[in-house]
Amino acid sequence: MSDLRLPDGVADRSGETANDVALALADAVAGFLDARLKEAPRASLVVSGGSTPLPFFQALSGKALDWSRVDVLLADERWVDEASDASNTRLVREHLLQNNAAAARFLSLKQPGATPAEGLDRVRAELADLGLPIDVLILGMGNDGHTASLFPDAPELEAAMSPQCQDIVAATTPASQPQKRITLTWPPLRDARFTALHLKGEDKLHTLDKALSDPDQVLEMPIRAFLKPGLQVFWSP
Predict the structure, then answer these.
(1) What is the C-alpha to C-alpha distance for residues 233 and 198, in angstroms, rounded to an integer?
(2) CA triplet 56, 145, 9: central angle to 5 degrees?
(3) How many CB atoms lie within 10 A of CB 236?
(4) Which of 38, 60, 154, 212 gets the most CB atoms within 10 Å of its CB?
(5) What are the b/e assignments for 23-60, b being 16+ CB within 10 Å?
(6) pTM score > 0.85 for this model?
């Protein structure tokens, strides 16, 4: 991974191509989910949206798992109609919940309501029987250091990042973004059993390097809260 120095206990799983990395991540996730399903009645998989995870979704969807016992949900979502090109719910349905993974149970963060604040109670109800801690969490990262919809310029960030936060989800309204958002809060994300950061492009390396340079300022770059032992970084050029 270039000459980037990761903290002790953070694994570098970078590869030659985006497809190589996607396949490696799909293998790692499938292996972890399979192991959990041997121990527990259900397993959970939390994913992120955008274009980077598409080959990972496609590779994972074909894995031979008991998908009927897997709960799939997004780490965050834009508060848009599912028909919108901006909908990550649509992206997950079209690229991950296919093939063998079509049997998974999808828990949608997008619920009725004009705003995420109006829809929060319905989202909480949707997630009411989600087993915690989360088993597998796949995060992305923006060039401002946000992850999920934990944006540096969101007025709700401090509350959503608080270790004392009791809510599993929060509405966020970052000024830099055209849409309002719904996101899992830091405590449930922090406690995931397996966490991977999936990145593509040299610009993401520069952002990660900046995040590592001052790891304590988590409200300036929320990704810093996840750069801890146990994290696996999957990066491709």
Answers:
(1) 6
(2) 70
(3) 22
(4) 60
(5) bbbbebbbebbeebbeeeebbbbbbbbeebbbbbbbbb
(6) yes
